[in-house]
Amino acid sequence: GLVALSPDGSRLVYVGPGEDEGTQLWMKERSQYAAAPLVGTRGALGPMFSPDGEWIMFGQGDQLKKMPVVGGAAITLADSILIAPAAWLDDHTVVYTREDLALGRVSDAGGAPTVAWRAEDSQRAAAFPAPLPRTRGVLFSLCSSLCAQSDLWVLDLKSGDAKVLVPGAKQGWYLPTGHLAYV
């Protein structure tokens, strides 16, 4: 994703122009006319707010990082990520796509990551995780051919079981109304 909206709707973070023709993150406060660049986010992708709206998570290179919305240095949560965005769960853990194409899970305070789920077919990537409420699980896309072909899956984080929800779907999101939106 290129845009993230804070849970209370007061802030918008997006990928915008950076120095030297690159990109960086920008934050637009609802109360301010202009957006401001977020220092230290050069080349960042996949911004996402924490469930409490106090942190911004993003991918930068092969690292998953977070930084306070009020500013400050970024903290690395995990190395060896493949792509952002990640799913920030209510239990203070994050599910993300690892370089080995599996879903990883790490505490939002940092620490040793674990494998949350891996496809039996090593050529398929688990990508674009999205949180379900109450840390019940995550939605994710199981992709092949650089995600040209994809199915929407759901992972139960308690049992470790995963199953197809919508064949042929690219990405999905749980809505507060209890509905599923997908591409």
Describe the structure.
The structure is a single chain. The chain has strands at residues 3-5, 11-17, 23-29, 36-37, 45-49, 55-60, 63-68, 75-79, 81-88, 93-98, 103-107, 114-117, 125-131, 137-144, 149-156, 162-166, 172-174, 180-182. It is mainly beta and 183 residues long. It is globular, with a radius of gyration of 16 Å. The model has no long low-confidence stretch (mean pLDDT 93).
Please state how the strands of the largest beta sheet are arranged side by side. Answer: 1-2-3-4
Residue stretches low in confidence (pLDDT < 50, at least 5 long) are none
Q: What fraction, in percent, of the residue positions are helical?
A: under 10%
Strand content: over 45%
Tell me about the biggest sheet?
4 strands, antiparallel
Shape: globular
The radius of gyration is: 16 Å
Average pLDDT metric = 93
The chain-level structural class is mainly beta
Terminal CA distance:
13 Å
Number of continuous helical runs? 0
Topology:
Blueprint lengths: L2 E3 L5 E7 L5 E7 L6 E2 L7 E5 L5 E6 L2 E6 L6 E5 L1 E8 L4 E6 L4 E5 L6 E4 L7 E7 L5 E8 L4 E8 L5 E5 L5 E3 L5 E3 L1
Antiparallel strand pairs: 1-2, 2-3, 3-4, 5-6, 6-7, 7-8, 9-10, 10-11, 11-12, 13-14, 14-15, 15-16, 17-18
Write a short abstract of this structure.
This protein is mainly β. It is 0% helix and 54% strand.
Keywords:
183 residues
